[in-house]
Amino acid sequence: MATTQAGPVEPTTHGGAPAKDTESGGGMRPGMLMMLFFLGSEAMLFASLFAAYFFVRYNIADEWPPRNAEGEAFELPIALTGVNTAILVFSSFTLHWGEHRLKMGDRRGLERGLELTMLLGLVFLIVQMNEYWHLEFTPGDTAFAGAFYSLTGFHGAHVALGLTILFVMYIRVRKASDFSPTWNTPLAAGSLYWHFVDVVWVILFGLVYLL
Fold first, then answer.
1. DSSP H helical segments within 71-184, as ranges?
2. Which of 78, 162, 148 lies closest to 120, judged by CA?
3. Does domain 79-210 sit in CATH 1.20.120.80?
4. Which of 49, 76, 159, 202 has the most CB atoms around its CB within 10 Å?
5. CA separation for the pair 195, 3 (Å, rounded)
6. How many CA atoms lie within 13 A of 179 on its CB side?
7. By the 8 A CB rule, do 64 and 75 touch?
8. Cα–chain center distance at 109
9. How confident is the model at residue 36 (pLDDT cuts 50, 70, 90)?
10. Could you tell me the residue ranges of all domains in the chain?
11. pLDDT per residue as tens digits for the range 46-94
């Protein structure tokens, strides 16, 4: 009796052969190209936010950071945020490790990489929310507060979106046995988005918390 064996679901060509991750001639697949265009627009958006931040800081605010009701300057939790930054940066390495395991044919390794990455991203968001809870100012208090919450909050929304993308990829791996060493464009595009979000945070941390 013939038996069948479950395996990764791959798109196929008309001849029945598995499709490769690149177009003929070595070109880039449309999905990855679309992600690159999207990240380009996101980079310009963050660049405009950083420009607005510097304009407010150096042209509008009289004092940076301003002083609270007790006359003391607001202090950002640099040490805690530094640890949180390390957590987010490490999540890029766990995601890259998972992708590498997939290239080696280890689908379980990819699952573990995605699980660790999502866990680290969730920890990052929880620590960020905790920081908001303990800050001594609100978005409407001063120009400094408005700029701070706009930048960090907008980035936090991108981390949440990145977690959603990774979760969808995880479901596809677990439930549909999707992706393989020869076809993983959606996974690679989602991974690129996550790395982009991590890089933006490193820049944000340096400019807002350290500078």
1. 78-103, 107-134, 143-176
2. 162
3. yes
4. 159
5. 41
6. 29
7. no
8. 20
9. very high
10. 79-210
11. 999 999 888 888 887 666 766 666 767 677 889 999 999 999 999 999 9
